[in-house]
Amino acid sequence: MSDLKYKRIVLKLSGEALAGDQGFGIHPPVIKEVAQEIRDVYKLGLQIAIVVGGGNMWRGESGAQMGMERSQADYIGMLATIMNALALQDNLESLGVPTRVQTSIEMRAIAEPYIRRKAIRHLEKERVVIFAGGTGSPYFSTDTTAALRAAEINADAILMAKNGVDGIYSADPKLDPNAKKFDSLTQMDIINNGLKVMDSTASTLSMDNDIPLVVFNLNQPGNIKKVVEGDNIGTTVRG
Ligand code: UDP
């Protein structure tokens, strides 16, 4: 534990991370692999909170583009994150990792409501806490939720797991062979250069609260462990 760079983290998993190549829904072998990665890191003894997205099922913006009222569409997205959280909880518990799901929208039959002090208590008792339902408000994202919850629980860092991308680049590396990978950046660099890492609300919130963000590739086994042990992988963003 003493060798770890971060002692309390917020891991942001996009919905996409649970979908695998099929790109939609939850792919059981993929979520199992993600859970195994988390279990390996959990065993190191650090405190882990997870924010899950819902983009593998629904995005409010897409619903709005189809003519749906935006807030209503966003609530569907928030419910999608809760489905992902329950699936992740199931996978983690089957590997022997104790967990609690806390939802920002009350759903007491299946999860606890989000209570900050209780979340911290769970972490101290070595339970992985999964924050579901985003912020509970439309027009926000789960990236913003990660920045918000990280500030609320005094996390040491936000680990932003990406699918197949190993950090932040000056341009899309799949489209531009000259794209340059950054080892470190500031939130201001991201905002000023319009780099697509997280939405601007999430960026400004992390910047204001001075919480480092590490963007790394989830698809490489052992990467979460490398980040918490302080290996220089991915891109580190400081306030
Ligand atoms: N969402 C929301 N408020 C929040 C978080 C999420 O309205 O605080 C909705 C929004 O519609 C979003 C969807 O939930 O499109 C899924 O979340 P997100 O797009 O952040 O998931 P990810 O891209 O990480 O899979």
TrEMBL record:
UniProt enzyme class: transferase
InterPro entries: AceGlu_kinase-like_sf (IPR036393), Asp/Glu/Uridylate_kinase (IPR001048), Uridylate_kinase (IPR011817), Uridylate_kinase_bac (IPR015963)
Region (Involved in allosteric activation by GTP): 20-25
Pfam families membership: AA_kinase
Activity regulation (record text): Allosterically activated by GTP. Inhibited by UTP.
Keywords: Allosteric enzyme, ATP-binding, Cytoplasm, Kinase, Nucleotide-binding, Pyrimidine biosynthesis, Transferase
Family: Belongs to the UMP kinase family.
The protein's name in its UniProt record: Uridylate kinase
Organism, scientific name: Secundilactobacillus oryzae JCM 18671
Protein encoded by which gene: pyrH
